[in-house]
Design brief:
The protein has about 400 residues and is of the alpha/beta class. Among the domains are: about 85-160, Dna Ligase, domain 1 (2-Layer Sandwich), CATH 3.30.1490; about 195-350, Nucleotidyltransferase, domain 5 (2-Layer Sandwich). It is about 30% helix and about 30% strand. The strands form 5 sheets. A 6-stranded mixed β-sheet has the order 11-6-1-2-3-19, with helices on both faces. Strands 14-13-12-17-18 form a 5-stranded mixed β-sheet, with helices on both faces. The chain has a 4-stranded antiparallel β-sheet with strand order 7-10-8-9. The longest helix has 26 residues, at about 285-310.
């Protein structure tokens, strides 16, 4: 039995479409990849429908050519500073105590947890269970078939701007693809790069993309805190462009090719050639000068991450430290800089557990796209939000019965 799952990561710097084929004897195989520069998005939000639609369509078409599969439906990433989250509790009476707690009871508890005041211009994105309580017994991971009178759930509730979500869905639909579900980028990335023991012990997932930095804190196997910062790699590129007097496109190329986050690790003799504004011929610049600009901006981003970790109140519950992904995580030296700035263990990681056409996506920059495919693989463990909401989080019950390998290292 085969099943095809498609994920589309619509980011500020790139649009990546992955086509994954699920086989019982092999697991998840990537059979199609489509990556194009992003257009029409700023800080994770659509600002030009026509341009964003064209970029999504180009990415999908490239993946279709590689896979030979016509993409009709997909799981799509969601980011932006419009995202907000809160932890909420839902309480219900067990409907048929003699039979034990049923899926319907769990659904009603999650619905109760998600019944928070939501302004008219916002909507539910996820209701992710943190843990359940059965007749006062806390810490229950899977309450199904347990006996009890009262079921409670502590859930992480994510909401987003209705306008931002509708514009994103419109662009994907304009590219000829129906949206199965919009998925918070940090949750998708966590699926792709976090080991199970990290999620259990306590870990911070930090995805530094082009326009945003997505943060998710996982404790006891599930998400406890999420936030999106409106700052990312484009901020670094802008400072490189100003500091070295370069066109933005050239500054981005220089950052990717010669960038380093620790000037002290760059040899004094290392240099590169560029053509700044106002010069008739290329100039040779020291690499350490570029590294100084990058270090200052990356350190600022990491400082904001540290502030958010402290603001969450969970900073003392994170022995597994920080896992970095996203395009900026590819910068040499960023791991050392992050350890120094955040004062926690840090590792930089690419998507794990994939086979097939993975050479192109074996990078921290593709964590969200890979996670979207994995999210789609587990779609049967979730149920739709009431009134046709875009997505839900009864996903972590499914992890307990997961088909995915246990990534404990």
């Amino acid at each position: 039995m085969e099943r095809t799952v498609v994920g589309i990561d619509v980011g500020s710097s790139k649009v990546c479409t992955l086509v994954g084929e699920v086989r019982e004897d092999e697991g998840l195989r990537i059979i199609g990849v489509g990556v194009v520069p992003s257009r029409g998005l700023r800080k994770g939000v659509v600002v030009n429908v026509a341009e964003a639609t064209a970029a999504i369509a180009a990415s999908v078409e490239e993946a279709e050519r590689a896979s030979g599969y016509q993409v009709e439906r997909a799981y799509v990433s969601l980011s932006g500073t419009h995202i907000s989250s809160v932890n909420s509790r839902g309480v219900v009476a067990v409907s048929r105590r003699e039979e034990g707690i049923t899926v319907e009871d769990v659904d009603r508890a999650l619905d109760a947890a998600g019944a928070i005041p939501v302004p008219y211009n916002r909507e539910l994105v996820h209701v992710v269970p943190r843990y359940y309580v059965v007749d006062g017994q806390e810490g229950v991971r899977d309450p199904l078939e347990m006996h009890g009178f009262r079921l409670e759930v502590e859930a992480h509730v994510v909401t987003g701007s209705t306008t931002a979500i509708q514009n994103l869905v419109k662009c994907v639909a304009g590219a000829g693809v129906e949206v199965d579900e919009v998925v918070l980028s940090s949750l998708a990335a966590g699926d792709a790069v976090l080991a199970r023991n990290e999620r259990e012990m306590g870990v911070v997932l930090v995805d530094i993309g082009g326009g945003t930095t997505d943060i998710a804190i996982f404790i006891e196997g599930t998400v406890w805190h999420t936030v999106t910062l409106g700052i990312g790699g484009e901020y670094i590129t802008s400072d490189v462009a100003i500091g070295l007097r370069l066109p933005t496109e050239t500054a981005e190329e220089v950052k990717i090719r010669y960038g380093h986050a620790r000037p002290a690790q760059v040899g004094p003799e290392e240099r590169f050639s560029v053509e700044p504004f106002g010069e008739d011929k290329p100039q040779t610049l020291p690499r350490w000068k570029l590294a100084e600009i990058i270090e200052a901006r990356v350190d600022e981003i990491l400082g904001m991450v540290l502030q958010e970790i402290k603001r969450s109140g969970y900073d003392g519950l994170l022995p597994a430290g920080v896992v970095l992904c996203g395009g900026v995580a590819q910068l040499p030296g960023i791991q050392d800089l992050a350890r120094e700035a955040i004062r926690l263990p840090v590792r930089v990681v690419a998507p794990q557990g994939l086979v097939g056409l993975v050479d192109r996506i074996r990078s921290p920059a593709y964590a969200v796209a890979a996670g979207l495919v994995g999210w789609g693989l587990m779609a049967d463990t979730r149920r739709p939000l009431p009134k046709g909401g875009p997505s839900v989080g009864r996903r972590f019950l499914g992890w307990l019965r997961t088909l995915l390998p246990d990534r404990t290292t």
